[in-house]
Amino acid sequence: MEETELETATQSEKEKPAYNRKAFKDMSIEGKLDYLTIKPFYIPNIIVEISTSEGAVVGMVNKVTNGKVLVSYADQLGTAEINSEEIVPIRMKMFSRFCKNRQSTQAAPLKGF
User: Fold this and answer.
1) Full-model pTM
2) Closest-CA residue to 47 (of 97, 108, 109, 82)
Protein backbone atom coordinates (compact mmCIF):
# COMPACT_ATOMS: atom_id res chain seq x y z
CA MET A 1 0.00 0.00 0.00
CA GLU A 2 2.85 2.40 0.78
CA GLU A 3 4.48 1.72 -2.60
CA THR A 4 1.40 2.88 -4.52
CA GLU A 5 1.23 6.08 -2.46
CA LEU A 6 4.90 6.71 -3.18
CA GLU A 7 4.39 6.07 -6.91
CA THR A 8 1.42 8.45 -7.11
CA ALA A 9 3.39 11.12 -5.23
CA THR A 10 6.31 10.88 -7.66
CA GLN A 11 3.95 10.94 -10.65
CA SER A 12 2.22 14.11 -9.42
CA GLU A 13 5.64 15.76 -8.91
CA LYS A 14 6.60 14.91 -12.49
CA GLU A 15 3.37 16.39 -13.86
CA LYS A 16 3.99 19.79 -12.25
CA PRO A 17 6.93 21.53 -13.91
CA ALA A 18 8.95 23.66 -11.50
CA TYR A 19 9.76 26.22 -14.17
CA ASN A 20 8.64 26.56 -17.76
CA ARG A 21 11.91 26.48 -19.73
CA LYS A 22 10.63 27.19 -23.22
CA ALA A 23 12.76 29.15 -25.62
CA PHE A 24 11.55 32.71 -26.20
CA LYS A 25 10.83 32.01 -29.87
CA ASP A 26 8.64 29.02 -28.93
CA MET A 27 6.42 30.98 -26.50
CA SER A 28 3.01 32.34 -27.38
CA ILE A 29 2.54 36.10 -27.66
CA GLU A 30 0.93 36.22 -24.20
CA GLY A 31 3.80 34.16 -22.79
CA LYS A 32 6.35 36.50 -24.35
CA LEU A 33 4.59 39.56 -22.91
CA ASP A 34 4.49 37.92 -19.47
CA TYR A 35 8.18 37.07 -19.72
CA LEU A 36 9.09 40.63 -20.71
CA THR A 37 7.07 42.29 -17.94
CA ILE A 38 7.49 39.78 -15.09
CA LYS A 39 11.11 38.69 -15.01
CA PRO A 40 13.75 38.28 -12.31
CA PHE A 41 15.65 41.41 -11.29
CA TYR A 42 18.96 40.06 -12.58
CA ILE A 43 17.75 39.87 -16.19
CA PRO A 44 18.25 43.25 -17.90
CA ASN A 45 15.53 44.85 -19.97
CA ILE A 46 15.23 43.31 -23.41
CA ILE A 47 14.84 45.27 -26.63
CA VAL A 48 12.24 43.60 -28.83
CA GLU A 49 10.70 44.17 -32.24
CA ILE A 50 6.92 44.04 -32.10
CA SER A 51 5.32 43.71 -35.53
CA THR A 52 1.70 44.59 -36.29
CA SER A 53 -0.26 44.85 -39.51
CA GLU A 54 0.52 48.59 -39.58
CA GLY A 55 4.27 48.34 -38.98
CA ALA A 56 6.91 47.48 -36.41
CA VAL A 57 8.02 49.06 -33.14
CA VAL A 58 11.46 48.47 -31.62
CA GLY A 59 11.73 49.07 -27.89
CA MET A 60 11.26 47.76 -24.37
CA VAL A 61 7.92 46.49 -23.09
CA ASN A 62 7.04 48.47 -19.95
CA LYS A 63 3.69 47.01 -18.98
CA VAL A 64 0.57 45.27 -20.24
CA THR A 65 -2.84 46.42 -19.02
CA ASN A 66 -6.33 45.78 -20.37
CA GLY A 67 -5.04 44.38 -23.67
CA LYS A 68 -2.75 47.38 -24.26
CA VAL A 69 1.03 47.03 -24.44
CA LEU A 70 3.11 50.08 -23.47
CA VAL A 71 6.48 50.13 -25.28
CA SER A 72 9.36 52.61 -24.80
CA TYR A 73 11.17 53.31 -28.06
CA ALA A 74 14.76 52.07 -28.20
CA ASP A 75 16.21 54.80 -30.43
CA GLN A 76 14.19 57.85 -29.39
CA LEU A 77 12.27 59.32 -26.49
CA GLY A 78 8.63 58.46 -26.16
CA THR A 79 6.31 55.51 -25.88
CA ALA A 80 3.89 53.62 -28.08
CA GLU A 81 0.67 51.89 -27.10
CA ILE A 82 -0.24 48.75 -29.06
CA ASN A 83 -3.32 46.54 -28.83
CA SER A 84 -2.20 43.03 -27.90
CA GLU A 85 -4.63 41.54 -30.45
CA GLU A 86 -2.82 43.36 -33.30
CA ILE A 87 0.60 41.86 -32.47
CA VAL A 88 1.75 39.34 -35.06
CA PRO A 89 5.28 38.31 -33.91
CA ILE A 90 7.57 39.52 -31.15
CA ARG A 91 11.29 39.08 -31.77
CA MET A 92 14.09 39.61 -29.29
CA LYS A 93 16.72 42.08 -30.53
CA MET A 94 19.22 42.69 -27.68
CA PHE A 95 19.63 43.46 -24.00
CA SER A 96 19.23 47.14 -23.12
CA ARG A 97 22.47 47.43 -21.16
CA PHE A 98 24.34 47.12 -24.47
CA CYS A 99 22.32 49.87 -26.18
CA LYS A 100 23.31 52.84 -24.08
CA ASN A 101 26.91 52.99 -25.23
CA ARG A 102 27.90 50.77 -28.12
CA GLN A 103 31.60 51.44 -27.47
CA SER A 104 31.33 49.76 -24.07
CA THR A 105 30.53 46.43 -25.74
CA GLN A 106 33.93 46.37 -27.45
CA ALA A 107 36.85 44.85 -25.59
CA ALA A 108 39.36 47.36 -24.30
CA PRO A 109 43.03 46.69 -25.07
CA LEU A 110 45.00 45.27 -22.17
CA LYS A 111 47.76 47.46 -20.77
CA GLY A 112 51.24 46.09 -20.57
CA PHE A 113 50.84 43.45 -23.26
Assistant:
1) 0.63
2) 97
